[in-house]
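Per reviewer request, we include the raw input and output of the structure prediction for the construct analysed in the revised manuscript.
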Amino acid sequence: AVEEALAGRDLLVYVADATRAVTPADSEALEWLKRAETPAILALNKIDAVPAKPALLPLHGKYQELYPFEEFLPVSALLGDGLDERAVRDAHGLTLTRSRVRRPPRR
């Protein structure tokens, strides 16, 4: 079922808790992403609970060791920080159309 859910996706967003270390469940989930060979963005959620934002960098590094994420987005779902859809699309050159992601043509 997991393989079917990941198959044929153009882009995935992996949401992790910025207040916790990488867990075995994270490692397992990222192994599934590797097998799917799908580009992914890492969204570290709950940044509102991390007083020193530079503390996010080592956590980001740990996740990056496990999976080659395309981008890193620090977000707070509670406060809405980092969730500006247009800014996210523009930053990644993506066009969202009915839950499909289209990358701009390569030059």
